[in-house]
Design a protein that fits this description.
Initiates the rapid degradation of small, acid-soluble proteins during spore germination. By secondary structure, this protein is α/β, with parallel strands linked by helices. The protein is built from 12 helices and 9 strands. About 40% of the residues lie in helices and about 20% in strands.
């Protein structure tokens, strides 16, 4: 065990919010230097703004320097169309602020990239968003004098995955950027979470692009400003949880349940009560890994969930990118 690389046993999450929570738990709840965050709630929507300011904060939570915004809406599971409209409106307003932060003006040309495999439902978020966004670049190219005020040139592509095309997604996008010369790239990707409660109910926006190892598509090359030469804003939704994370969370829930009922859980869990979360996860993965059972798990209602969240993101993008679309009323663009 002394030569074991413990990095592979870390809790797997693509959400900066969860990475911060894990780091704080490991540090006894004390604030993390280099990380600034604030959380507020608006009628069932929890919004967390998080900034990784320096390398110390970046190493502490394992995320790149930059700004992250998370919208958490647990009630999205109830398929409430009114709530979906409100989430799309909130998303549009916050996304506009990200455009301003990276210096993208009202007339800047936009390329939307839907990453993922359209044949695998939990990984089809990006392609589904591309299907529903308002694409306008062709009008600016063919009939610019007939384009009404309040619109900008938007193009969109779903480049597929390496196993389908034989080409890295980043290489396809890089070629498109060189040819069409957009001013900003918006990349949409499916993510992994440590929490079942956040699956399909959480949206993360970040101004740091897509980095190698992020998302569930195992992309080896990133989509970043350093690679493409233009700003890249990433939008992600957790659609899966690792099986080992679920088992570890179930142990926590059972311990909490027994403690609430004043049961002596030492008789059941024994040494596990003396382990922290990372040590328990290491044990779970050691058991599951040799038999190949550390699977990616998604809810059985994923088909409907993924369509709903894709419509929310697409509608929010339409409102954020085009002034002609009313940001305060995106209902007509949600369904």
């Amino acid at each position: 065990m002394s030569n074991l690389d413990l990095q592979q046993y870390n809790v797997r999450t693509d959400l900066a919010l969860e990475a911060k929570e894990i780091a704080e738990q490991s540090g006894g709840g004390s604030p993390i230097p280099g990380i600034v965050s604030k959380t507020f709630e608006d009628n069932g929507i929890t919004i967390t703004e998080l900034e990784v300011q320096n390398e110390q904060g970046s190493q502490a939570i394992g995320k790149v320097l930059g700004n992250y915004l998370t919208l958490e809406v647990p009630e999205l599971r109830n398929q409430d169309t009114e709530l979906q409209d409100r989430v799309a409106t909130h998303f549009a307003k916050h996304f506009e602020s990200f455009l301003q932060r990276v210096g993208v003006g009202k007339t800047a040309r936009v390329l939307i990239v839907g990453l993922g495999n359209w044949n695998v439902t939990p990984d089809a978020l990006g392609p589904l968003v591309v299907e529903n966004v308002m694409v306008t670049r062709q009008f600016f190219e063919l009939m610019p004098d007939q384009v009404a005020p309040g619109y900008r040139a938007v193009s969109a592509v779903a480049p597929g995955v390496l196993g389908i095309t034989g080409i890295e997604s980043s290489e396809i996008v890089h070629g498109i950027v060189e040819k069409t010369k957009p001013d900003v790239v918006i990349a949409i990707d499916a993510l992994a979470s440590r929490s079942l409660e956040r699956v399909n109910t959480t949206i993360q926006i970040a101004d740091i692009g897509i980095h190698p190892g992020s998302g569930i598509g195992n992309k080896r090359k990133g989509l970043t400003k350093e690679i493409l030469g233009i700003p890249v804003i990433a939008i992600g939704v957790p659609t899966v949880v690792y099986a080992s994370t679920i088992v570890n969370s179930a142990i926590d829930l059972m311990r909490g349940h027994m403690a609430a009922n004043k049961a002596d859980n030492n008789q059941v869990f024994g040494l596990m009560n003396q382990m922290d979360e990372r040590e328990r996860l290491q044990l779970v993965k050691e058991v599951l890994h040799p038999i190949g059972h550390d699977l990616l798990v998604t809810p059985k209602e994923i088909d409907q969930f993924i369509e709903d969240i894709a419509n929310i993101i697409a509608s929010g993008l339409n409102a954020a990118l085009h002034d002609a679309v009313d940001t305060d009323n995106v209902a007509a663009y949600t369904h």
